[in-house]
Protein: Flavohemoprotein
Amino acid sequence: MLEPASLGLISGAALLGTAGVRAVRGVRGLLRREQERVEKTERERASFANQLDAALHWARASQPRLKAWIGVRNFRVSAVADEAAGCRSFYLVPEDGRPLPRFEPGQYLTFHLPTADEMRPLVRCYSLSDRPRDDYYRITVKCVPRGEEEGGDGRRGLSGSHYFHRDMNVGSTLAIEAPQGSFFLDPTDDLPVVLIGGGIGVTPILSMAAALVHRRDRRHIYAFTGFRNSGEHPFKASFEELAAATSNLTLDVAYSRPYDSDRPDVDYSHWGHVNVDRLRQVLPSNNFRYYLCGPPGMMESLVPALLEWGVPVEHINYEAFGPASIRGLSDAAVSEPCNVDFVRSEKSLRWQGNEESLLDLAEQGGVRLEWGCRAGNCGQCRVMIAAGRVAHAKRPGVELVDGECLACIARPVGDVVVEA
Ligand SMILES: Cc1cc2nc3c(=O)[nH]c(=O)nc-3n(C[C@H](O)[C@H](O)[C@H](O)COP(=O)(O)OP(=O)(O)OC[C@H]3O[C@@H](n4cnc5c(N)ncnc54)[C@H](O)[C@@H]3O)c2cc1C
Structure:
């Protein structure tokens, strides 16, 4: 049967003759080429707009100063969900009902938790554990075992993770700083990615994987995660759902202490820790962009092993949830003995060279400094250096003015005078 368009041409042909048909075909060809040109230009424009958008996003997020709001904003817990033993998610919505600013997958929120002293909240950071969404932020908190009598910062009875697990329920409110952090996916990048998450360090990794799958990113994603066993394995179903939604995501799960009932190749892929031997078995090459977040032991062994495997240092991005200095990535890891004077406390202390940071030295010498994350992110431990020089073990997660440093990641380079 003839299509209506062909019928039109036949009847036209009867009227126009062969030359007329050729002319009509010529015009149609012209129109088709014009249409293709317009579509190509449109595709190029859209791709350019995407690239521009991504570059702007990247630039905005790389600026620690450009936070979505200043100070703290009140949020309400809209839902809670248990993810694994001692590991609970909190869904957060703004109390003012105004729109929720976007964040970069991998970034974290800084919480000001109430204490008896209103002027001195307990400051703790938690990574956003879901992809950016319009309606809520989600964090996931692992309850950290600790001594009965003291919180980590010496204030009796205070602990961020216990506060969340004990006191935060649907309807509770929380004072939160805007999303921040420089550990996030570069949207302008086209290298395939390897995401590595150990224990509760899986939170920013899940956010990244979910965002990549959601935006149908064409890069291949390898997600290596490591837990003790199925009891301590959060987000198993979430990762499996992501892998089912795309052929681009390869999951590899390591259990270090599997239960007898945990089935190899079903519940987990590999017995042991996430290490470079496992990466070499699974990955086709080392040419990937790596994003790592995990316990200090994992970071301290894996980052140098990646460097040894020939991964360029600029391909390795990592986040530490607490004190974790990665040797080989910073000159500040080596620091000679020197004198450190804390002027306001009137204490002169000797830096031996093996301390973790100025904050450690201060605490050992009885100088009281505020701190929140001990990882160079929250800015609570900022102090002025009145004389001398310090080096940061990693790029500070907050903007500093001239002469300021973050005591939790700063090490003296020669004698220094600190205004504290
Ligand atoms: C960027 C970032 C993102 C994070 N994301 C998450 C997350 O998604 N989920 C999650 O559960 N946790 C996350 N954390 C960790 C979280 O902020 C808290 O550190 C954790 O909940 C423990 O706090 P706490 O108050 O319960 O414990 P505390 O006992 O008060 O200890 C707080 C932290 O400081 C360390 N510490 C305490 N005292 C000392 C000391 N004297 N010397 C050295 N170290 C000490 C502890 O090891 C612990 O990491 C993140 C941390 C950072 C920096």
Summary: The chain has seven helices and 19 strands. Residues 108, 124-127, 139-142, 144, 146, 151-153, 159-162, 181, 200, 203, 319, 321-323, 373-375, 377 surround flavin-adenine dinucleotide (CB under 6 Å). The first helix runs from residue 4 to 62.
